[in-house]
Amino acid sequence: CDVSSGINAEYGVSIEHDFVGIKNMTEKEQGMRGWTLTKVSGDETLEYKFPSKASIGPGQMIKVFSGNSGATHNPPLNLVFKKLDSWANSVDLEIRLKNSEGEVVSTYKAKAESSTEYLEEGDQRACSVM
Questions:
Q1: 1: pLDDT confidence band, cut at 50, 70 and 90?
Q2: What gap in Å lies between CA 6 and CA 28, rounded to an integer?
Q3: pTM
């Protein structure tokens, strides 16, 4: 994947690490105001809006944990999506990262035979924002 914008989306879909991480690969701070993460699972769509003051410093990563992950909400780099039970709890999973203009800049897709198959493997996947 091309890292033209310098932002890299890392998707953690394991039982122990239920988060989506956004990493800044540039030398400039990246404001996240207006950016969203959307989870699409079957007929359910949930959207997380980054706080208006959220930003990622050079080389830093913001992690957005699910509400049931056990993670502590500790801004600015550890955020909890309280309305979301798990990022990975379905057979068909899609997570979209959208910029402040509403453009999809990164998509993660996973398909499994059961809702826990890829969780048990502890998949860590990454794709650059295009």
A1: very low
A2: 9
A3: 0.76
